[in-house]
Amino acid sequence: MRFKTFPALMLAFLLVPITAGAQEAPPRTKVLPLRVSSNRLGTEDLKALTDAVTAKLAKYPTYEVMPVPADDPMDMLVDAGCVELDAECLSTIGAAKGADRVLYTEVSEKDGRFQVLLRFVDVKTKEARSPEGGVETREKLGDFVALALEKVLGPEPVKEPVLAKVDIETQPVGAEVYLNRDFVGLTPVSLRLKDGTYDVRISKVGYRDETFPVQVEEGRPASKTVALAVVTVPVAPTPARPEPRREVASTPFYKTWWFWTAVGAAVVGAGTTAYLLTRPGGSGTVGSGSFTADPAQAQLDVLLRQ
User: Fold this and answer.
1) Handedness of CA 44, 47, 53, 55 (dihedral sign)
2) pLDDT tens, 207-252?
3) Count of CB atoms within 10 A of residue 291's CB?
4) By residue range, what is the domain housing residue 148?
5) Which sign, positive or negative, has the C-alpha torsion 46, 51, 56, 60?
6) Residue 10's beta-bridge partner residues?
7) 304 has pLDDT over 70
8) Are 135 and 82 contained in the same domain?
9) Does this model's pTM top 0.70?
10) Distance (Å, rounded) from C-alpha 97 to C-alpha 56?
11) Which pLDDT score, from 0 to 100, does residue 128 have?
């Protein structure tokens, strides 16, 4: 059995995070969130609401969330020499902390409903946006505060995934690349993938397929090189060519020489016999013939008598 050996198929891919361009992003707006204030909620509830406010703010990439001051807002009001926490007072507090915006949240209770008041103040212009509303139960306060913030800040932005660059190369080139069963191109190919695990399959005529997982993690570059094993392919022997069949021509019996020779002999013999036996005599009698076994008399074997 003969074997044909193919060269090894080399595979290499590199995972590189896609970074922003050289152009610097504009500075973000600094937002100072104050502790949520209420005379109807306990310490744990106020802390949970304050954490919910800061978490919601953090989802807006244009804002830089400053640490929440440990002081109670009422104490800060006194320190600022204010009478109430209105836009003027909040602007003064924000300027003292180096903030661009100040967010103050207050929860009260009226007629069995929890009332929520937000004040989002521009430190420079002292412009304030103050959505209000209420809910029936304490458990819904967190959701209501999140919705009130969206009225001030706009819809929560959808986070753009950080893609990773994936380069796949093979030697020789031109191998088919499949990602999760989807054809993505012939090597070399360059892909941009979200974080997650992907199944990669490399296929090329004459080479064994190779399948392996690729783990892509956001912000964590990785590199890997895979060498595929040499493939040996048995070569089947060339089958022998069959001998051509010889056609033997058959001649019908009625076209052969021996057939017509026999027919001619039979016809002559029958004619002679009929002549001899039916020749009429002079007296009207039928002639007769006789034969002898004596060779000396052979010339007289046929006698015609009247």
Assistant:
1) negative
2) 888 888 888 877 666 566 556 555 665 656 667 676 666 655 555 6
3) 10
4) 29-153
5) positive
6) 171, 227
7) no
8) yes
9) no
10) 21
11) 93
